[in-house]
Amino acid sequence: MMKSQSLTSKRTNLAIHAILIAISVVMIVPFLWMILTSFKTMTEATQIPVKIFPSEFRWSSYPEAFKQSAFQYYYLNTALSAFMKTLFPIIFSSMAAYAFARIKFPGRSLCFFLIISVMMVPNPVFYTPQYLMMSKLGLVNTVTALWIASLISPFATFLLRQFFLGISKELEEAAILDGCNPFQIFWHIMLPLVKSALVAVVIIQLLWSWNELQWPLIINSSPEKLTLSAGLATLVSKFATNYPVLMAGAFMAVIPMIFLFFIFQKRFIEGVAFSAHKG
């Protein structure tokens, strides 16, 4: 009986690993294809039957990507925008989440409902009012417009509130007896206890900000004011697209995220897994 159960367990694990490997292959093939295409000539990239490996690895597409677009500005704008869209939501959303979770005030539930209801509305719905606001402030076609409208994140507020609700109230009561005010309790006691949730929020905000496409294309038109995603879109032509150059640009665009993942791999996995478990 025990041998039968052990055999069944091994088969189940084998099947699970086989499925995971298959999914991993499906996910990594487009990435490898992007890298290989960046080393091909235009003829090799578009020929039929498809040629997987280039006859010769050519690096010319990478400097060509800088020549055909303002790639150095794309990097700087994307890094600045991603930093601001991560820093401010962490600060403001964590404060709002703590207030909604621990501080009782009139209309608390209504205010929280209004914030959460924003998550139910697609982002493109906000583009028109946001553009009008940026226009009145004179921020159209500026780098500031890329991040100024994203100072708070409803999702981050919701996620962090759930974590704050799970912390024992005895800790706050002990801090109050020691003479701590609400901000001191939040900063010195509560915030360190939700470190895993903060990591998850940083991951989500950073990836979303780095890959954002629509808003930069709407608010900015100058090449020097675009982000990486929007700048890569300008390399796509209506009549002819240089695919090796486009793939070289796409690969250079994801390099920072790849390095960040390998450097903070443990934190990335812990943050995402812990937030999924909490949800």
TrEMBL record:
Keywords, sorted A to Z: Cell membrane, Membrane, Transmembrane, Transmembrane helix, Transport
CDD domains according to UniProt: TM_PBP2
Positions of the ABC transmembrane type-1 domain: 75-264
InterPro entries on file: MetI-like (IPR000515), MetI-like_sf (IPR035906)
Cellular compartment(s): Cell membrane
Topological relation to the membrane, as annotated: Multi-pass membrane protein
GO biological processes: transmembrane transport
Predominant subcellular localization, coarse grouping: membrane
GO cellular component, one term: plasma membrane
Membrane-spanning parts: 12-36, 73-98, 110-127, 139-164, 185-208, 245-264
The family this protein is said to belong to: Belongs to the binding-protein-dependent transport system permease family.
Protein name, UniProt field: Carbohydrate ABC transporter permease
Organism: Cohnella herbarum
Taxonomy of the source species: Bacteria, Bacillati, Bacillota, Bacilli, Bacillales
